[in-house]
Amino acid sequence: MWNRRPRGPHLLSLGLLLSPHASTAQEHAHAASAPAGDPAPPRLPAASPLIDVRVHAADREFEIVVGPLSLPAGGPHLRPPVQLAEVPVAGWMHGFSWRMRDREGNPLPDRLLHHVNVIDPDRRELFSAVPRRILAAGRETKSELLPGVLGVPLAPGTRVLVSAMFAPLPDASHDEAFLHIRLPYTPFEDPGLVEPVDVYPFYLDVMGPVGEKEFPLPPGTHRRSWEGSPAVDGRILAVGGHLHDYGDWIRLEDVTAGKVIWETGPEVDGGGRTVGVPTSRLWWRGGARIRKDHVYRISVQYSNPLGHAAPDRAMGAIGGIIISAAGDWPEFSREHPDYVQDLRNTLEKPNEAGHGHGRASPSAGS
């Protein structure tokens, strides 16, 4: 999809990511364009001391660091301003891991992170023309790694937006907390004996590509879903999901073919709280085929046993990687209403009333 490097000889290249409904019936959200408005996309944020990008060349990793963040005990969820960074390497990314740390690098409780999204504003998503999600992680997603023969190609100077939410603990304050995201990679200029195969991330949400991603969860059983078609043919090689407490299952199905591609339930602790969602690595069986002339549905079901609405609300999202059958994806317009509205939502959400802001100290880049 871009001229990332000169193609040299290599030994092997394999051919290959609104309102609640009170009844038990499924609420079906159809694809829709964003409302009419200013057709120009919003400006991306300027450089900020709240973000730092570090290269660990000897380990073939680079790191995105967000902070320092002030997380007072018992404080509300905090959404620091969205940060813009530039990827400092050219190569294939092989996944990610993350940790919360203090200024000295000591581990902090992982539950301080609610979720983080890393977004490429210059390329499109698989199922819609919104900016591409490179990775998404919740507190239950500690790491996702690919085998060395698969990698997401990152062109030199790729820009990324980092959007995160943090959850202060009820009984402990952290005046200088940092989110560290580590991303292993293989340089384009030194792929070794086997050049990694290009794979691409994808993202689906039961709320659709544009708008709110969380939804209220009153008592009872509730379903949500969204349908769409991919921009290219390909194969899903790995897929995982994101659920909140009281989630029963999350599912991806080929509506046209009438078959379920993937379904899973949450991993829960002894108290029934969601602590993870299993990831399925489908490359072992050649992946799951997807076709641009088929319609696909993501759906989720929750069962809230409380006598009141669940305090953390609900979400249903899927992330994974695909290998594309096409060398180039369709062009997309930055003036597309979905692109404009999604980017505006991403950038402006932290500025809405009721959301806290991150605080950068003068030495934030240290």
Which labels suit this protein?
five-stranded mixed β-sheet; 1 helix; 24 strands; 366 residues; mainly beta; eight-stranded mixed β-sheet
In short:
The protein has 366 residues and is mainly beta. Helices cover 3% and strands 42% of the residues.
- Proportion of residues in helical segments: under 10%
Principal-axis shape equals globular
Mean pLDDT: 83
Along the chain, the helix and strand elements come as EEEEEEEEEEEEEEEEEEEEEEEEH
Number of helices: 1
Description of the structure:
The chain has 366 residues and is mostly beta strands. 3% of the residues lie in helices and 42% in strands. The radius of gyration is 20 Å and the shape is globular.
Write the layout of secondary structure elements.
Blueprint: E1 26-29, E2 51-56, E3 61-71, E4 83-86, E5 91-93, E6 95-101, E7 113-124, E8 131-138, E9 143-145, E10 150-154, E11 159-166, E12 174-187, E13 197-198, E14 200-205, E15 220-228, E16 234-243, E17 247-254, E18 259-264, E19 267-268, E20 274-276, E21 280-281, E22 288-290, E23 296-304, E24 316-324, H1 337-348
Parallel strand pairs: 1-15, 10-13
Antiparallel strand pairs: 2-3, 3-12, 4-11, 5-10, 5-12, 6-9, 6-12, 7-8, 7-11, 14-24, 15-23, 16-21, 16-22, 16-24, 17-18, 17-23, 19-20
